[in-house]
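Q: Here's a chain of 331 amino acids. Please give me its 3D structure as tokens.
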Amino acid sequence: REALDFLRARAERRTDIDEAEKLVGRIAAIAEAPEEKRDLMVTRARMLSEGLGRPKEAIEVLRVVVSEVDPAHLEALGELGDLCAEVGDVEGTADALERTLEVLEDPGLRVPVAQRLADIEEQELHRVGKAIEALNAWSESDLGDPIPHRRLVPLYEKAERWNELVASLDSLADLEEDDAAVSAATRRAAEIAHQKLSDVDGAWSRLEPRLGLEDTAAETQLRELARAASRGAQLAELYSTIAPDSDEPEEQARRWMDAAAVREQYLFDAPGALEGVLRAFAIDLTDERYLAEADRLAPLANDWPRLAQVYETLVRKTEDKPARMRLLLRH
């Protein structure tokens, strides 16, 4: 060993990089301490790449370092990845980045590595499974970033990994700032839950809260879900619960009419529909649209007495004589 060290020092003094590299390789082969062996091999790799212009040989040396000698050596992993990128070895670069992720613990350091790995796997190697792993590593390291989830959605869909797709869409719904994007993610998650996972409850629980946010697209989807899953009664009850809690009288009346429409169209419950219309009418007795609906539903519900009570109440409360006369004639 002493002789080899002497010869190495002499070669380095002469700047004979070729001879020095060979001697470093021989010394590394007989070195017993793992750290010394690792450092000697990394030094040899640098001589090969920087001094001799033989990056592919340097890559082979570094691969031995990270696979057999010290898999957690970040310096060797970094140099391996850079050299693979330099020679156009995309798979080698991806492997080095993947090994780096296995070692790194600091979230701030993991994010750029995961981003780069995700780009390579998705855009250059087109390996969906590996791209998903990298994007998940990114999202786990930066819980507030919606970008990895946006990229995961089409990959999960392509791989038909429906449970994970729904989870990623749920994360997007929590992370997106634009309400239109939140709505889109929520509705898509509900659609997948219903159509791919047969999870009607899951779909319903995602769409229901959107009713209070004036999300017409989500409300339309909830109506379609109620019809497809025979949940008209649940939807009608939901509208009936929302109606009295609304702040504006117009909104209360609209929700009572929604409940009435569901009871008539989904449940063929004319008496229940009539009840909803009359509750809407009670909020604004001047709106004859509600009275016209009551006129239409009363014979279907076979509830003439109830309609008569409505007219009698209206006649008592109407002070204008021509208006009272019109009501009496209509009655």
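Q: Can you summarize the key feature?
A: The chain is about 80% helix and 0% strand.
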